[in-house]
Structures are given as structure tokens and as C-alpha cells.
Amino acid sequence: MSVVLLVDWETRGKMNYDVISKLISVYFEVLSKLLSAGATIFAACVAIYGINAWRREFKGKRDIELAEEVLELFYKARDAIRAIRSPFGYSHEGQKVIERIKAEGKEGDIDLRMATVLERYEAREETFQKLGTLHYRFMARFGKDKTKPFDDLRECVNSIFMAAKMLSILQESIKEEGLDSDTKKLQRDEMNQLRADLWWGDKKRDRITPKVESTVKAMEEICQNIIGVR
Question: Domains of the chain: which residue ranges?
Fold first, then answer.
């Protein structure tokens, strides 16, 4: 009877050993798979983080490049506006524009003053065209509230052309007979203001130069915040 029991315990011991061995084997197999899966997940997380970091860096670089380009164009536009409004000129300025207008059959629609302003503008038009193109990119990238300087700068340019046009109209109007002295005085005052808007030099009446300077300064603050200049 004792021999039978001995054999039984040996059998049971062998069976327990086999089970434990299998369990250990399964455990290490599962652990290996978990470690492998964890390594894959970790690698994926690192890759995603790296891609996101690259995207942030790339977007930041594009933002800076756009801000630098826009600010540079605003500086150029400021110089261009000053050149367009210069009270000094050449005897031949505006003649090409007048000849072109005549060829188009619109001789009465422009005088030498307007032709001079238009010729000067056209010589620098590329700067303003680039700003017009970047206006909407800037809006899409940084928001509509950051694009007011674009509108203000365009308004300055429009005011110059408007001043040239209104001066021509008032000069013809003041020649009319029957106008009383008060009306003529008002027209002369208005003409003086328009001249100050058209040409720089009259510091008291000049409304364009201060607006251009404040507009450029506003864009400087916006772009320098994007670029990171302190």
C-alpha cells in the first residue's frame, strides 16, 4: 500500500511540475507579447509626438516668414506713399499717363496732377499688389482682427487719389461766376486741405503721414509679437 502511495505522489509531483512549467511558459509568452505591444505603442507615441512637434515647428516657421514678409512690405509701402506724395517732381512726370488716356479716348478725365500721382503709383504698384495678395493669407493665419492695418493703408492710398481728383473739381468750380466770397473761402480752405493730403510738407494739415506712420506701427506690433521680437 505504501508503494502505491509513493508512486501516486511522484506522479502528482510530475504533473504539478508540468503544469507549473506550462504556466510559466505561458506567462513569459504573454509578458513578451505585452512588452512587444508596449514597445510598439511607445514607439508610436514617440513618432506622433515627433510629428506634432515638427508640425508646430513648421507652422511657427511659416508664421514667422509670413509676418516678416508683410512687415517688410509695409515698410516699402510707407516709402512708396512718401514718394507718391512728394511735392517735387520732373517736368515730364505724368505725360506718359496723359498720352495713354488720350489714346483711350478719355482725355477729359485726367489732368497733370492726377496723371503724376497715377504714374508714381504705377511705378510702385507691385508692393501694393503683394500686400493685397497677402492680406487674405494673413487673415486666414492670424484672424480678421489682425488685418486692420491692411485696410488703413489702402484707405491712405485711396485718400491720395481722392485728393487729386477733388482738387481738379474744385479748381474748376472756383472759377465759376456768381459765387459769393464765403463760398469761395470755404472752397479755398478745402483745396488747401486737399493739397496737404496730396503732397507732404504742410505739417499742420497733413492727415496722411500721421495715419501711415500709425498704421505701420500697428503692423509692427502685430508682426513682432508673431516673430518673437521684444
Answer: 65-227
